[in-house]
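job 3f2a | input accepted
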Amino acid sequence: MREAFKEYGAGIKDEIASAIVGLFPELEWRLPPKRKIWTKEDFRLAIFDAVSAAIAFHKTESADRNAGYAGV
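job 3f2a | predicted structure (72 res):
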């Protein structure tokens, strides 16, 4: 996941969620505030986990196609 978002300078979940909002501004209203170390993870981050997984998968598939990998 971190590899897929390295180009956006995002390495942790909060940064990845902010990068996703940059790509999909319609999700901005669901972006939780940055987590403090003493608070638990906001349930809304699950949305950004799902979107980041889809983006990472898409990047992997695109890279495989560009490399000539046919996939099975």
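job 3f2a | The mean pLDDT is 85.
job 3f2a | closed
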